[in-house]
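Q: Please design a sequence for this.
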């Protein structure tokens, strides 16, 4: 895991514009937001799927970087005063605090554009049809029917009592869509997989995305700001619906355990090739930061 995290950091350092290139302040802010922090769960998932489809590490590096750039852009925008108005991210001041709101807004825009530029590079894959599928996957995961739509639902749900189905609908989009994209993009980097295999991986990714969010809600309720690297207890303070507020802490942990079991079971047909996906499933649950 440490090796893949370092590969991702190295790839981001290489693919992001240098801080000396005009406009310097924007490029400095992009690098500030993207480098030197984060668990890199989405890149880890992309690389782990590469074990199943025999993908080249260099291709996975580019895909992982594209996914991570979309994720980072979403965090930069999520922290803005018009969204969650947070001042701490990954243990350091948020982008709009370190620079300013206008720069942070442009950072998100530029990171998103760079992600699609990376996926559109001709040397990424040899099959242009597959490349178009990959670009479409990331676009859907990022847009109004994916991450952005989930965020819109989240903002509208503040102070509201959601049903379990409504909460799941929101998080399948807000958190889950990009995790599913990380898995599926990794799956398209290597030898073609059968439709049934792609469907199994997509189902696993859906479970993993929900699992990540349930555990995130638990950590927000239990962990400290110093441990999380972001403001603890933020969801409760803002009266946001979470799995903890809806189910209580005990039942939320039970739900996490059930999702973990289901995710492992979904990977069974892949045998030893899915070992790293099994390990990442456990890491999502057992992480404490």
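A: Design:
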């Amino acid at each position: 895991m440490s090796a893949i995290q370092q590969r991702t950091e190295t790839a981001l350092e290489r693919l992001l514009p240098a801080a000396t290139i005009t406009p310097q302040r924007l490029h400095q802010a992009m690098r500030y937001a993207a480098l030197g922090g984060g668990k890199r769960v989405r890149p880890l998932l992309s690389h782990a799927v590469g074990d199943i489809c025999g993908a080249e590490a260099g291709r996975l590096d580019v895909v992982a970087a594209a996914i991570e750039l979309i994720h980072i852009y979403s965090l930069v925008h999520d922290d803005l005063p018009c969204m969650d108005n947070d001042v701490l991210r990954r243990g350091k001041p948020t982008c709009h605090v370190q620079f300013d709101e206008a720069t942070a807004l442009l950072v998100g825009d530029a990171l998103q554009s760079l992600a699609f530029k990376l996926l559109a590079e001709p040397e990424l894959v040899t099959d242009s049809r597959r490349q178009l599928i990959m670009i479409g996957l990331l676009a859907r995961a990022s847009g109004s029917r994916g991450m952005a739509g989930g965020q819109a639902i989240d903002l509208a749900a503040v102070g509201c009592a959601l049903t379990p189905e409504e909460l799941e609908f929101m998080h399948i989009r807000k958190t889950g869509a990009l995790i599913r994209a990380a898995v599926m993009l990794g799956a398209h980097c290597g030898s073609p997989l059968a439709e049934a295999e792609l469907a199994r991986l997509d189902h696993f990714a859906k479970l993993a995305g929900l699992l990540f969010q349930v555990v995130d809600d638990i950590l927000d309720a239990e962990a400290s700001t110093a441990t999380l690297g972001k403001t603890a207890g933020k969801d409760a303070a803002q009266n946001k619906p979470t799995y903890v507020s809806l189910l209580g802490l005990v039942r939320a942990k039970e739900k996490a355990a059930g999702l973990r079991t289901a995710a492992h079971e979904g990977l069974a047909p892949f045998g030893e090739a899915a070992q790293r996906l099994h390990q990442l499933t456990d890491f999502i649950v057992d992480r404490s930061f």
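Q: Thanks. Anything notable?
A: The CA atoms of residues 5 and 39 lie 7 Å apart. The chain has a mean pLDDT of 94.
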